[in-house]
Amino acid sequence: MAELSTIARPYAEALFGAALADGADLAAWADLVAEMAQAEQHPEVQSALSSPRLDAPARVALLSSVLKSKLNPAASNFLSLLAENDRLELLPEIARQFALLKNRHDGVADARIESAFELTAAQVTELVAGLEKKFGLKLKPVVSIEPALIGGVRVSVGDQVLDASVRAQLERMRDTLVAN
């Protein structure tokens, strides 16, 4: 879906820039955009939004009505812009990119940690501390269990992957043996 991310990027950057210029709470904005994206992804909402009977203001009103949070004028204008350009389906990607921009601004990144076995809180803390030194960022860990790794961990921070799993080591050994 590279095309969606390419189309969504200017919207996310513009929204982030506007929120930053207003001195708004970026975390609150990220939550609001994520809520809008979640609402847009609901099958019934998507079906209603795609109705040719609804014009842009009606689609904005519909989406606004299903949100728990009240929209501020800037958020309402943003939804109007998306609706007028038939871009409401970009909300999930815009939310993802907005969160990335917020994290970059805050010097934070998500660290996806996959482990073959359950990690204790102390192990996660120790691992994150080492990774923060390596990447020079404050990391928010998201830990999942992946039995296919056999042992060890695989860590993804942005587009960088550190694979210290037994499976990766076995694959490297196999490649070395086959190459000789």
UniProtKB/TrEMBL annotation:
How would you describe this protein's topology in the membrane? Answer: Peripheral membrane protein
Can you say where in the cell this protein is located?
Cell membrane; Membrane
> Which superkingdom is the protein from?
Bacteria
Q: Name one GO cellular component term.
A: plasma membrane
Q: Which InterPro entries match?
A: ATP_synth_OSCP/delta_N_sf (IPR026015), ATPase_OSCP/dsu (IPR000711)
A Gene Ontology molecular function term of the record: proton-transporting ATP synthase activity, rotational mechanism
Pfam families reported in the protein's UniProt record: OSCP
Does the keyword field hold Acetylation?
A: no
Give the signal peptide range: none
Q: Specify where it is mainly localized.
A: membrane
User: Could you confirm whether the keyword Ribonucleoprotein appears in this record?
Assistant: no
Q: Which UniProt keywords apply?
A: ATP synthesis, Cell membrane, CF(1), Hydrogen ion transport, Ion transport, Membrane, Transport
Function comment: F(1)F(0) ATP synthase produces ATP from ADP in the presence of a proton or sodium gradient. F-type ATPases consist of two structural domains, F(1) containing the extramembraneous catalytic core and F(0) containing the membrane proton channel, linked together by a central stalk and a peripheral stalk. During catalysis, ATP synthesis in the catalytic domain of F(1) is coupled via a rotary mechanism of the central stalk subunits to proton translocation.
In the record, the note on similarity to other proteins reads: Belongs to the ATPase delta chain family.
The protein's name is: ATP synthase subunit delta
User: Source organism lineage?
Assistant: Bacteria, Pseudomonadati, Pseudomonadota, Betaproteobacteria, Burkholderiales
